[in-house]
Fold:
Amino acid sequence: MKTEYLEPWVRTYPNKTELIKVWSDWFESKFDEWELFTITVVFKSGGKIPRPERWEGEFEKCVLRKIRKALEPNEKNRTNAIPFEEFCYYEFDESSIHRITSSRKPHHIHGLLPIRKSQINRFWSTDENDLKERIKKDIHSTGMVQSLEIKPIKENSTINWLTYITKMKSM
Structure:
């Protein structure tokens, strides 16, 4: 998350647990307007040096731009297509203790993606219970994304995802 978004919250809620609870409550208060989704994007090889600015830029260009385009056909309205897209965290050296893989940890981003209920049919296939196939193809066509996982968040469980994506992060 960009520091300019984080700073006012940290001053008001210095305890990480309190901060996560407040964020969770705020996102939960929007459930009548938005559907919330978890998003994890793993990028193709990018070296052994963490470069958050590069991968956050790729996330913006390769993922969010494609989603905005699917949500809003009118180009001049695309900047506001996703209500709050800034809630994402870059990771490189962190991985789940439950994930058993080689020592190589990929560059990836975890985030929370709100989609307006009025636009959900452009984003999510209720028949397949998955992201629309056209959006998946568009995102993978960039050549930068190794894997993409988007899942809906059930009401009253936002705090679980927020706790997970802020693991090992200092606030």
Summary: Residues 16 and 171 are 6 Å apart (CA to CA). The radius of gyration is 16 Å. Residues 96-100 have pLDDT under 50 and may be disordered. The first strand starts at residue 34 and ends at 43.
